């Protein structure tokens, strides 16, 4: 690690535990900071807090008392999930106490180079692609952030011949001051997490922090086809590397005559790429740009694109049964993500959708249902989805109690050549703890089919 003295003797409040809070508390304690951990879960039920206390770290559990801010704090390290309208966070900001997230620690302490990836959609797929593309290159890739291990844990053990490939959310980026990746990637910007950020402008501002501290020695890989992303690029001081599916950009990454090019160098024909979906072409272009910038071998990039069929729960190919193709897209927790999944297929689709009712209708989904031959709906939103489907002219609409039942129903309705797609367009919390649990039930149900 570098800058190991910058937190020695400093008073730091770690607000919220989970994986990132625990990792940050342990690292700061190791660096000689005076750490107080505050978590909303009661002490009796809080095994993490008990373990930290045994290591000599002060813990306060069960509430977030404002009095914790009366100790001349040097900074607050906030769990990304705690919103800024939380009273103790609001008061810390009012008192001009720096409020950061643990990705800030990773950035300032790591000896390794860093590639940071953000965007409204496609972060995990792009992060995974870059990580795989950098294998067998001059620098050893380490994956971190929302995917893989907590970023400050990775940074703690990273060496100068490593490169950290970090998936960064808007929640994490908002809590940064000196965050400085060598290569940053901004994929796209849509309306998202407005309940957390308040306005779209605040959301875009948080995402923009991925390049805020970059200099002309760094590289900003950005989506030229997205007007909002291009506006962010105009303000970046980094060297620009655009990618586009619509234009030939000789200084960037692009598609031309059915092939992918990096600065006019042929990389691969699209016909050789196994990852489905037009939206994934953008993710691939971004990954190629970042990986090539960091020294990936073209042969390794080609190998990855010829073999990588998707991240778990993100338009993940599960298996083929009696000429039916099963795809798990449980991560599609909103309408936009489900639309992108549906638009990835030209074959007839049997769609499995439903979940938590956030009060919205599904009219926006209708334009993407043209190749859907049947809908199997489940969860709180099943009636709303059924209305949308029937309005779009889908004759076969059935209901299921859970995803596993929906799989059996979909298979019964299917014919050879069909795609059976779980793309819920809803969050999972009405029936499942996480979208992963929902996706795992889908995969297990597919595995049981004969």
From TrEMBL:
| Domain Mur ligase central per the UniProt entry, residue ranges | 117-291
Matching entries from InterPro entries are given as: Mur-like_cat_sf, Mur_ligase_C, Mur_ligase_C_dom_sf, Mur_ligase_cen, MurD
Record GO biological process: cell division; cell wall organization; peptidoglycan biosynthetic process; regulation of cell shape
Q: Does the keyword 4Fe-4S apply?
A: no
Q: Report which superkingdom the organism of origin falls in.
A: Bacteria
Q: Which SUPFAM superfamilies match?
A: MurCD N-terminal domain, MurD-like peptide ligases, catalytic domain, MurD-like peptide ligases, peptide-binding domain
A Pfam family matched in the record? Mur_ligase_C
Q: Name one GO cellular component term.
A: cytoplasm
Which GO molecular function annotation, any one, does this entry have?
Answer: UDP-N-acetylmuramoylalanine-D-glutamate ligase activity
Keyword terms, alphabetized: ATP-binding, Cell cycle, Cell division, Cell shape, Cell wall biogenesis/degradation, Cytoplasm, Ligase, Nucleotide-binding, Peptidoglycan synthesis
* Enzyme Commission number(s) from the entry: 6.3.2.9
**Function per UniProt:** Cell wall formation. Catalyzes the addition of glutamate to the nucleotide precursor UDP-N-acetylmuramoyl-L-alanine (UMA).
Q: What is this protein called?
A: UDP-N-acetylmuramoylalanine--D-glutamate ligase
Q: Which source organism does the UniProt entry give?
A: Alkalihalophilus pseudofirmus (strain ATCC BAA-2126 / JCM 17055 / OF4)
